[in-house]
Amino acid sequence: MKDTLISPAVEFYDVVTRTHSEGGDALRSVLAEVDPSAGAILDVGAGTGRTVQIIAEAVPGARIVAVEPDLVMRTVLTHRVVADDDLRSRVTILADDAQGMAIPETLSAVVLYGVLGMLDRDERARLWDRLLPRLAPGAPVVVELLPIEKPQTLPPMPYAKERIGEHLYEATLRGEPGEDDLMVLNTTWRITGEEGEVRTVHGTSQWHTFGLDDLARETGLTAERLTLQAGLLRAGG
Fold first, then answer.
1. What is the value of pTM for the model shown?
2. What sections of the sequence does the record tag as coiled-coil (predicted)?
3. Exposed, middle or buried: residue 73 (CB in 10 Å: 0-12, 13-18, 19+)?
């Protein structure tokens, strides 16, 4: 994986995932059918641990491997795991990226939220070459993707909104086409209180665009859309 700059907006990661909670609901639904005896559950790009928490609740007893290369988010992830007796006994944290991570011998499920768009086509191909042979029969691969299959201009739009204490956090998102299949995404966060604007934070990231059908072709797995931004890949028809 290419080196990437940490966005100044990383502090708002959990505000975004809370606002867009439908991906977590879809993940719970899929994982409810997973047999933890079939292998570990691999969470690639585990972030601050929100998906780890969902996995642990949806699949009691499952061994979870959480992969997160970003130091800031991994620090929060570690705090979350250490503070919970159940998570502490079940979750192994790897400070690796998707290309360099150690993969358990057998996987009962794979979660790829917020990470696939950071990989170009060749990098995804290498990831699939490593992951697919480790999947237990019928193991689900739950993915997150932008609802945009090709680079395009996105006018500013509301992205997230949350009140925390006496402050209101509001974000807008806009996008521009980059090179090849890349989208350049810009977020602007405005934090306001009773006296007006407290501060403004700008963040920029890049995301390789693709569709769920593209992932099905890359993997040879069947695909099912779960929500606007979540999809399921699974062997068999």
1. 0.91
2. none
3. buried
